[in-house]
Hints:
Number of strands: 29
CATH class: Mainly Beta
CATH architecture: 6 Propeller
Strand order of the largest sheet: 10-9-8-29
Number of helices: 1
Shape: globular
Distance between the termini: 40 Å
Largest sheet: 4 strands, antiparallel
Strand content: 35-45%
Structural class: mainly beta
Helix content: under 10%
Order of helices and strands: EEEEEEEEEEEEEEEEEEEEEEEEHEEEEE
Amino acid sequence: xxxxxxxxxxxxxxxxxxxxxxxxxxxxxxxxxxxxxxxxxxxxxxxxxxxxxxxxxxxxxxxxxxxxxxxxxxxxxxxxxxxxxxxxxxxxxxxxxxxxxxxxxxxxxxxxxxxxxxxxxxxxxxxxxxxxxxxxxxxxxxxxxxxxxxxxxxxxxxxxxxxxxxxxxxxxxxxxxxxxxxxxxxxxxxxxxxxxxxxxxxxxxxxxxxxxxxxxxxxxxxxxxxxxxxxxxxxxxxxxxxxxxxxxxxxxxxxxxxxxxxxxxxxxxxxxxxxxxxxxxxxxxxxxxxxxxxxxxxxxxxxxxxxxxxxxxxxxxxxxxxxxxx
Length: 326
């Protein structure tokens, strides 16, 4: 089995401007990979020196507003602390909406994938550096299936959960269950994640994680956030929603694609014909630029229609996120 009528404007708060829009988070979901969704054991193995995990979470300080995406007509989510303000972008049918407020650091894209690969760009997707790997290379304990950004951190997840303030220095955190996670997103002031055999987890800071409630043992290989809720797409073709990453409610079925938030609604990524659906939803928007990943190719666009690509070689990339590095 393959794993895998609205008011827009700006809300001004001291030193921070928050974008209000009709859309939700535009972010990519993970590529499926061969797995039966059932836990088969611990992480095993050791981390390679070249791609190992080192350092702490980096310097943090100063209150900031970390705005989650504006859903259908409102601002959802605020909070977190980092060295500045960070904002997730809202998308309306593929249209670009400005970032929320002045950044507190360097606009940064980070992509993750097989072999625990992590690679980042600090020049709006034009060049990619700090390419790191954990080891392995197949559908194993090193595969990072998804990445999100919030509370001043990038969080990458698979069997392992890693966080980084800048996409360069990473720290591993305890996965509260012996199971893989298929996607991780930030929304409603927390990270939510969903994965194999109905497993879910959530965290307020990306460091300490708590196991959530089950989704009837249905493995989820992609996750999106928008309109104030997380939505997971499972192998059974069902969509499961949650506002907190803990309790999940089964919704409509009959789906056969990864999920994305497209045109202010959740959609099968394959049916979304605008930028959020590119490469089956493995796409994110930030600082006026769209970035999308497929295999060892990273694509960028400044208008959502014309794309240029960079082949970075190496292990396949599965997801990409945007945030601000200190």
